[in-house]
């Protein structure tokens, strides 16, 4: 029994040591996760800016389109008379002036609409970059998931099969973490001391 407990303790200690000094995990925790958080915040900010630019451009386009539609409706009756040959000379002259004014208006409004549509298009240029950022974050999440699975596998491999004796509650309450190991002679203060202790016992 003592041999089994010692071997189990050694395996668990080695697993913990390997876990604590896994440089890749340290890099992920200290660098890549904070960096991923900043990158996602960047995506959120860029998306918000693009959405605001798009909405502003649409808001500027709507009155222009509405005004053009109303002007065309005003010209349509006289134009219909002309097409059916029932227009008088005075009305025809008035129609010509109105169409001339409409052409000038359409020229200016179409330039404005083209500018606003370009603004909308340019506001979408963030998508390629943010798509790359999101892909990198997804890759990081997948790697973290794989690391967690490895950790669970390591700890799962060191679990003791339950027995009737281990299922019984101990009459002695567990002590828990050693809060002041330097003040106690019976406490092991570091991973190195654990390793030395196991080695001295032949494990």
From TrEMBL:
Give the record's subunit note: Homodimer.
Q: What is its EC number?
A: 3.1.3.-
Q: Which UniProt keywords apply?
A: Chemotaxis, Cytoplasm, Flagellar rotation, Hydrolase, Protein phosphatase
User: What are the protein's GO molecular function terms?
Assistant: phosphoprotein phosphatase activity
Name one matching Pfam family.
CheZ
Q: Can you say where in the cell this protein is located?
A: Cytoplasm
State the organism of origin.
Answer: Vibrio atlanticus (strain LGP32) (Vibrio splendidus (strain Mel32))
Question: What does the record give as the function of this protein?
Answer: Plays an important role in bacterial chemotaxis signal transduction pathway by accelerating the dephosphorylation of phosphorylated CheY (CheY-P).
The Gene Ontology biological process terms listed for this entry are: archaeal or bacterial-type flagellum-dependent cell motility; chemotaxis; regulation of chemotaxis
Chief location category: cytoplasm
* Sites marked Enhances dephosphorylation of CheY-P: 132
- The answer to whether UniProt assigns keyword Cytoplasm to this entry is yes
**Its GO CC terms?**
bacterial-type flagellum; cytoplasm
User: Residues annotated as region Disordered?
Assistant: 162-203
Keyword rRNA-binding found: no
Q: Which family does it belong to?
A: Belongs to the CheZ family.
The protein depicted here goes by the name Protein phosphatase CheZ
């Amino acid at each position: 029994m003592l041999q089994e407990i010692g071997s189990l303790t050694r395996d668990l200690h080695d697993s913990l040591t390997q876990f604590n000094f896994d440089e890749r995990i340290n890099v992920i925790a200290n660098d890549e996760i904070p960096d991923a958080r900043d990158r996602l915040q960047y995506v959120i900010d860029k998306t918000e800016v693009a959405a605001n630019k798009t909405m502003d451009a649409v808001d500027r386009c709507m009155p222009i389109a509405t005004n053009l539609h109303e002007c065309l409706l005003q010209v349509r009756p006289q134009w219909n008379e002309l097409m059916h040959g029932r227009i008088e000379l005075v009305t025809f002259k008035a129609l010509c002036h109105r169409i001339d004014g409409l052409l000038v208006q359409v020229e200016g409004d179409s330039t404005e609409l083209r500018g606003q549509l370009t603004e909308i298009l340019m506001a979408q240029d963030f998508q390629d970059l943010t798509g790359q950022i999101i892909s990198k974050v997804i890759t990081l999440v997948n790697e973290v998931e794989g690391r967690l699975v490895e950790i669970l596998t390591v700890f799962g491999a060191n679990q003791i099969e339950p027995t009737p004796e281990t299922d019984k509650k101990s009459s002695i309450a567990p002590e828990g973490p050693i809060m002041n190991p330097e003040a106690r002679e019976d406490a092991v203060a570091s991973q190195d001391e654990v390793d030395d202790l196991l080695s001295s016992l032949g494990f």
